[in-house]
């Protein structure tokens, strides 16, 4: 459920007409619903209310400071994968003891930043990283909590570019070698082994891969405890999918996901961490765009809009689908027309959807790309020297711009011409 609904014939974000935002802010523009964010976060907390837990928002899904502040104020932790994301979480008021640092390529500078600023734990991805962190922490006179990410070789049955739990993927250490790696971690100075970490992929719409991976984590936890390790925390990652197509069967609910966790590892008496991002913010956002031209092709009509692949990359990168809806509600029984919805960027890949079934559209009409709150604005670029898309947060009947669209002068000012030219 989200809070983007037709009211009085017009699509609203909560109680704000999207046409009002378009008129005041311009298009393209990302619009987020605070009520949806709050509701979705609450569903994950409810799913784990049977045990000690921390729901860490995956900052990579949406890193706007206002979104992070809202999540942090609700009690969320943060899962970060870079120094920039760490600093964003801290700037949003999230304390270090609620920040988990993941990622396969942490640099010494990033590790130092997190140690000095405070960290809940590092999720270790490899033995070289583990040794580097140990050496750095010891040199700083610090002891840092760590969980080691294991790769359970479980097929998440998701898109190959967002699968992370198979042996061929770059993430984690093979679970078959976990015992020896944990033994080394226990010997290294500056490290306090507190848990096990696993993450098998994103946009999972079946609970079976989670169940298989978590059972392997449970078996490993028992074996590690038998070796004398104090495993008190299980970081089970994120990845629960969302319904990008409204006409499809809905993915499992957070409460069902929580039950899988309980059945697989509930007997271990560990604190549970999960790291949802997409499932919290995906359907809490839309990308609002305006039709520039309706172009008649040889065998199809094109709806050329002012949003482009640099604004919403997922369709071009993953072949991802986003439902596209008109801002003005079509009348009951209104005829629909197939349009190829495309952007202005000079790439054939700048195609959002082919043969999208929409009511008759005209230049100046508004459309919304649904389920665009995750991996939308964070993946945007200024390709073709197009300014980054602004972001807006709605709460009830009011809204605020939470990232302004840069001017062309601001874009140009970031470049410099060397004196010899």
Question: How would you describe the overall organization of this protein?
Answer:
With 421 residues, this protein is an alpha/beta fold. It has 2 domains: 4-31 and 283-413, Lyase, Ornithine Decarboxylase, Chain A, domain 1 (Beta Barrel); 34-281, Alpha-Beta Barrel (TIM Barrel), CATH 3.20.20. 28% of the residues lie in helices and 25% in strands. It has 12 helices and 21 strands. The chain has helices at 18-25, 34-47, 65-73, 83-91, 108-117, 127-139, 178-187, 208-226, 254-265, 278-281, 314-318, 408-413, and strands at 4-7, 10-13, 16-17, 29-33, 53-58, 77-80, 99-101, 121-124, 144-151, 173-174, 191-197, 233-235, 271-274, 285-296, 301-305, 324-326, 336-342, 351-359, 366-369, 391-395, 398-403. Strands 4, 14, 15, 16, 17, 18, 19, 20 and 21 form a 9-stranded mixed sheet that branches. An 8-stranded parallel beta barrel has the order 5-6-7-8-9-11-12-13, surrounded by 5 helices. A 3-stranded antiparallel sheet has the order 1-2-3. The N and C termini lie far apart (56 Å).
Output the keywords:
421 residues; eight-stranded parallel barrel; alpha/beta; 2 domains
Give a brief rundown of this model.
This protein is an alpha/beta fold.
Largest sheet at a glance?
A: 9 strands, mixed
Instruction: Specify the CATH architecture of the largest domain.
Output: Alpha-Beta Barrel
Q: Quick one: CATH superfamily of the largest domain? A: Alanine racemase
Radius of gyration in whole Å, from Cα? 23 Å
How would you describe the shape?
globular
Total strands: the figure is: 21
Summing up helix and strand content along with how strands pair, one would put the structural category as: alpha/beta
């Amino acid at each position: 459920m989200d809070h983007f609904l037709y009211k009085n014939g017009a699509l609203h974000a909560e109680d704000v007409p999207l046409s009002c935002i378009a008129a005041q802010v311009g298009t393209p523009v990302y619009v987020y619903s605070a009520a949806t964010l709050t509701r979705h976060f609450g569903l994950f907390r409810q799913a784990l209310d049977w045990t000690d837990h921390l729901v860490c928002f995956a900052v990579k899904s949406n890193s706007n400071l206002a979104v992070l502040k809202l999540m942090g104020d609700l009690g969320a932790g943060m899962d970060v994968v870079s120094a920039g994301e760490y600093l964003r979480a801290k700037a949003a008021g999230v304390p270090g003891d609620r920040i988990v640092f993941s990622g396969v390529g942490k640099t010494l500078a990033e590790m130092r930043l997190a140690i000095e600023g405070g960290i809940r734990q590092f999720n270790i991805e490899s033995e070289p990283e583990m040794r580097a962190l140990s050496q750095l922490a010891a040199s700083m006179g610090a002891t840092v909590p760590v969980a080691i990410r294991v790769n359970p070789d479980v097929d998440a049955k998701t898109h190959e570019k967002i699968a992370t739990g198979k042996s061929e993927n770059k993430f984690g250490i093979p679970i078959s070698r976990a015992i020896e790696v944990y033994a080394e971690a226990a010997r290294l100075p500056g490290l306090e082994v507190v848990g096990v970490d696993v993450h098998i992929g994103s946009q999972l719409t079946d609970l079976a891969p989670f169940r298989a991976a978590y059972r392997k984590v449970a078996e490993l936890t028992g074996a590690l405890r038998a070796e004398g390790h104090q495993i008190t925390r299980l970081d089970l990652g994120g990845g629960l999918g969302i319904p990008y197509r409204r006409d499809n069967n809905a993915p499992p609910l957070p409460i069902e996901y929580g039950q899988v966790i309980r059945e697989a590892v509930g007997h271990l008496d560990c604190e549970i961490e999960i790291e949802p991002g997409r499932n919290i913010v995906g359907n809490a956002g839309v990308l609002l765009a305006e039709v520039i031209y309706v172009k008649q092709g040889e065998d199809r009509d094109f709806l050329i809009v002012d949003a482009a692949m640099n604004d919403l990359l997922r369709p071009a990168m993953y072949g991802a689908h986003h439902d596209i809806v008109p801002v003005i509600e079509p009348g009951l029984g209104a005829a629909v027309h197939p349009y190829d919805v495309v952007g202005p960027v000079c790439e054939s890949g700048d195609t959002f959807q082919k043969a999208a079934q929409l009511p008759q559209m005209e230049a100046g009409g508004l459309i919304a790309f649904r389920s665009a709150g995750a991996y939308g604005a964070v993946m945007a670029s200024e390709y073709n020297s197009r300014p980054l898309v602004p972001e807006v947060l709605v709460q009830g009947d009011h809204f605020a711009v939470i990232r302004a669209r840069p001017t062309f002068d601001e874009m140009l000012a970031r470049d410099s011409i060397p004196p010899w030219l």
